Amino acid sequence: MKDAERISGQLSGETFQFMTSRRGLIKGIYRFLAAVGLGSLGYGLYRFLAPGGGAAPPIEVPLSEIPAGGANAFLYGNSPAVLIHEEEGTFRAFSLVCTHLACKVFWNPEKREFYCPCHDGLFDAEGRVLSGPPPSPLERLKIKVKGDIVLVGGV
Ligand code: FES
Questions:
Q1: Quick check: CB of 153 below 6 Å from ligand 1?
Q2: Which domain holds residue 146?
Q3: Which sign, positive or negative, has the C-alpha torsion 115, 120, 124, 127?
Q4: I want to staple 144 with a disulfide (CB 3.0 to 4.6 A). Which of 115, 128, 138, 155 is the partner?
């Protein structure tokens, strides 16, 4: 037995023999890790493909709550977001989670910029990075106007 180590001992008059194999142990660890990895992958795929999976349900904002030129902050899923109503009547919505290290960013309507106070990240009104360490634009949320309701996200 090349790879095996035989351990024997006596306990209460009975002899126990254990045979362990380093190769068998490593195979077992690999199999366990593969099973955990496949399980995680399968669960992630299930959550992605399940109806409504992966996305929070849309938020309904009554038009009366957001006059032209105004903004309305809300929680989308568990994350802060904002709906902006432009003077000309269009809407834009963004996640307020900074793409650098996930601090909350703030909309400044006078400067028409998003500002992240954690590391002075700056985004323009379209969510594009102007300066600072954020590696990518703010996540833009989908919008659909239905009568006097604005649906934000997941639409
Ligand atoms: S977390 Fe926003 S700039 Fe670093």
A1: no
A2: 59-152
A3: negative
A4: 155
